[in-house]
Amino acid sequence: MLTNQLSGAVMLTNQEAAILRLRRSKRVWPFKTPFTNHIRVIRGINMDTGDVLASLGVEGATAAAHALSLPAEAYGNDAQLEVMWAMKAYNHAEVYFNLISSVDPKFLKLTKSDDMIYTKFREDFPDFDIKILDAELLKSPEAKEKWRPFCNHFEHLVEDFNYGTLLRLDCEKDYTEENTIFATRIQFFAIEIARNREGYNSVVYNTSAKTKRQKKEQS
């Protein structure tokens, strides 16, 4: 299988890399998220998903965030196909970034086990830098051995705890080829819950809010 190098440590398939590149083209995806009917999250040139999520308020956005913890089967019946898996992973990332861009991340709850995940994460990884991730601390053989007990702890607590998920390296930046690695679902939750609670993702929200204010003032 042909692959593309990412961040010197992680390999993306050509299909997966193409999915990430498509983000910049703002193409409309021919499939729905698990909660499309609720918040109409379909990316496209003429639709601002961030505005839709912001209009929901904290309670509605939290309901949207809950859908991010649904098992892979909830996204369709063709998860076994590599390209569809990549599209689902992309869609999960797209919705999540729009979420933290639209609602103050400090108020978000991503799973029903957020408190447990955060507490266990900081017990096992007290000095782990979540602002800018070192891919080696997630992907090296030594790192995998250290992460394995943590991940397995949530096997029966978090749906699809080991399902492949896109994760940003620098929390202040969007998902791009250069700023994205593949991690397990529980690693994504652990790091993003910590980023939300410790204020690191607030930069994304504040930057988005500032941009929206400027556009409103100019209109």
Polypeptide structure, described:
It is a single chain. With 219 residues, the chain is mostly helical. The protein has a single domain, classed as yst0336 like fold, CATH 1.10.3560.10. Helices cover 52% and strands 8% of the residues. A two-stranded antiparallel ribbon has the order 1-2. The protein has a two-stranded antiparallel sheet with strand order 3-4. A hairpin with a 3-residue loop joins β1 and β2. α3 packs across α4. The longest helix has 21 residues, at 82-102. It is globular.
What spatial form do the alpha-carbon principal axes imply? globular
Q: Tell me the distance between the termini.
A: 49 Å
Residue runs with pLDDT of under 50 for 5 or more positions: 1-16, 22-56, 69-81
Q: Numbering strands along the chain, what is their spatial order in the largest sheet? A: 1-2
Quaternary state reads single chain
Count of runs of 4 or more consecutive helical residues? 9
User: Would you tell me the overall average pLDDT?
Assistant: 73
Strand content: 5-15%
- CATH class type: Mainly Alpha
Number of strands: 4
CATH superfamily: yst0336 like domain
- As for the number of domains, it is 1
CATH third-tier fold name: yst0336 like fold
Per CATH, the architecture is Orthogonal Bundle
**Protein structure class:** mainly alpha
Element order, helices and strands? EEHHHHHHHEEHH
Can you summarize the main beta sheet? 2 strands, antiparallel
- How much helix is in the residues? 40-55%
Radius of gyration from CA coordinates? 17 Å
